[in-house]
Input
Amino acid sequence: MTFVKHHVFIGNKNQKNPLANNAEALADGKQAFSHYCVACHGNDGQNTGVPFVDHISPPIPSLASPEVQSYSDGQLKTILDYGIQPSGMPGSKGVLSDDELWSIIIFLRHLPPAGSQGVPEMYTH
Amino acid sequence: MQPKFRRLANAALLLLVISGASVVTLAQSAPRRIEITASQFSFAPGDITLKKGQPVLLVLKSQDVAHGLRVRELNVALKVNEHGTTQVQFTPQKAGDFVGHCFVFCGKGHGSMVLTFHVVN
Output
């Protein structure tokens, strides 16, 4: 299934990230990630502190895993734009700007160590 | 003309020239004021034409929740609080079309909040 997703279902392989890969874009990506992604992926993108992570099918992948990291930037943009059906991954086109989505991809390429960012604030009450 | 009056006339003329030059300088450096209203989920106006090299004072007003406006290529970023007003001055240094986005998450249509600056020579 992973092979089919990487080579058939998820297109846009060759699109390049228009943002410069720098500290500013990384900080922007971390901030944008915190708006819309942490509920399922945790602050670290590795599901830390997500209470339903062991009870959802298909499982939520760690964004640091080779399965995710081996997508090209363009493929990740397609996934962020349109989501992955029938998984629970929703599309974010229109919810977040292109600028923010590309900055999230920069953040995904520089994920912090697992567990280093604590539990998402929404799960601390 | 008597020497005393001639000196007075010269002084008055000098004052006039200096004050006139100051007015010209002020007129040249005074930024163009542009007001932008942000509301879920749009900026108004959505298209703004600027002149390269002409200083601009951007005034951003929110009609509802907190918003932001960032145009990376023009090095412009400002945030406005709920029902607040904020401003920034800048001078566009390159011509072209530059798209600005809201960068303070403001709801489901946040990603569609865009504004285009057309900078002309």
